[in-house]
Amino acid sequence: MFFPEPRIPFVRSGRGFYALVRHADVVAASRDARTFSSEPAATSPAPPSWLSALLGTPMVNMDDPRHSRLRRIVSRAFTPKMLARLETDIQATAARIVDDLIAEGPRDFVSQVAARLPINVICAMMGIPERLRPYVLRRIDVMTEYSGVRGALTSPRALRLLGGNLKAIVDLHRLVARLGRARRENPTDDLVSALVNAEVDEGGERLSLRELGSFFDLLLVAGNETTRNALSHGLRLFTEHPDQRDLLLEDFDGRIGGAIEEIVRYSSPIIQFRRTVTRDHVLNGHPLKAGDTVVLFYPAANRDPEAFPDPDVFDITRSPNPHVGFGGPGPHLCLGANLARMELRIMFRELFDRLPDLRTTGEPVPLLSSFDNGVKSQPFTFSRPARSRVEVRP
Ligand code: HEM
Q: Which of 34, 290, 359, 365 has a beta carbon 3.0–4.6 Å from 376's, enabling a disulfide?
């Protein structure tokens, strides 16, 4: 289906796009990166060229060979060894979040729980020292506030927030560049050292300090709101489907893996990414021309009845579950999927173990965005901590 692009003041409109809504089409376009390019950008609208000149291009907006070079280097952040190291940190953060929750009482699940975990994990990953975290978190708050008004680019408030947003990004670039420089001079065994110093067995490749800044941005954009929204959607889904929640709590370790995949399928935290067609091509009988834009709609693909029987049923035991919530199979498949899975597993375990009757109490306030299926706030409740109900396997 073709959609012309609406005219928005101050935003250059494109030629319109074809919507890919079938699971098979989203998979085909994700796999065939030569025909379906991520350049000039996988997001819509593409960032203006002055912004790319200022901040660099994130790998999600690149094709090979630039993309594969960067992906090879930054994959060092997501090895099983790196993830295992983070696990203790994530566990400690999740426990602290629940301690604070019990002390404060329930107000808003997003600000008290969902927003706190991923950002602390990303800071831990990048080795941001504890004393600098408030500085980083303040700037991330500014960026998040701006993302909440994305739909109203032209309002004075949005323009003011855009200015604050850019300054926050530049400040964070400077901070990680300083960190990178320090690790070049005195390498340790942390991630930043691994990224900015050449690894001999990997062809001597390393990130420039500017690329390190872009990588941090990408982590903040790709790994922050996505995971926090999955947490908020997850709690709402377990509240709306108490049978599924009981099923999970009967055998937490055995079922949490399937539950997380089903939360990501059912809620699709990312709504869409785009591709640009590089050569004339026929997709599912539809001719596409070089230069056409296609938009991959993950929520539609994730409810395609040809791929998922009873697609509107939330079923944590669904198997197989070939959802495309982390992107379709191909070179851009989410690099942080296993990290997100670990965060969700640890956070839900901590929550349900210590607050067994935790549940939402009303409708979420959605984020105005065509990109993030975001939750701005979510009312919830719980009663005093009781004994553990989560079955832990020996
Ligand atoms: C539930 C949580 C998450 C969801 C739903 C999600 C979703 C996605 C999707 C749909 C893509 C595909 C982009 C494309 O095909 O163009 C992607 C890519 C990516 N994600 Fe995630 N993501 C999540 C968590 C994370 C986390 C925790 C991190 C890291 C901290 C992360 C890092 C990335 C990166 C670096 C890419 C770009 C990969 C590339 O271009 O090669 N994501 N993610």
A: 365
Alpha carbons 36 and 64: distance in angstroms, whole number: 12
**Residue 320, preceding bond cis, omega within 30 degrees?**
yes
Looking at domain 2-363, does it have CATH number 1.10.630.10? yes
Q: Which residues line ligand 1 (CB under 6 A)?
A: 30, 38, 42, 59-60, 71, 122, 218-219, 222-223, 226-227, 230, 264, 269-270, 273, 325-327, 332, 334-336, 339-340
Contact (Cβ atoms closer than 8 angstroms) between residue 20 and residue 29: yes
Q: What one-letter code names the amino acid at 299?
A: P
Give me the pLDDT at residue 301, please.
Answer: 98
Peptide bond into 129 cis (omega under 30): no
**Residues whose CB falls within 8 Å of the CB of residue 149, separated by 6 or more in sequence, listed in order:** 155, 157, 158, 161, 368
Low-confidence ranges of the chain (pLDDT < 50): 151-152, 388-389, 391-394
293-297/17-20 β-pairing: parallel
Neighbours of 235 (CB within 10 A): 26
Tally of residues, the chain: 394
Q: How far is the CA of 231 from the centre of ligand 1 (A)?
A: 15
H or E segment and range at residue 193: helix 191-196
Q: How far apart are CA 150 and CA 224, in angstroms?
A: 17
CB-based contacts of 48, cutoff 8 Å, min separation 6: none
Map out the domains of the chain as residue ranges: 2-363
| Residue 170 tokens, joined | 């530049």
Q: Please name the residue that has the structure tokens 């600000």.
A: 111
Strand partners, 275: 294
Q: Can you name the residues that pair with 146 across neighbouring β-strands?
A: none
Identify the pLDDT of residue 201.
65
Q: What is the reported pLDDT for 49?
A: 79
- Pair of tokens at residue 296: 């991959």
What's the token pair of residue 318?
């669904």
Q: Of the residues 226, 260, 371, which should be mutated to test ligand 1's pocket, given the most ligand atoms within 8 Å of the CB?
A: 226
Which residue's CA is minimally distant from atom 10 of ligand 1? 327
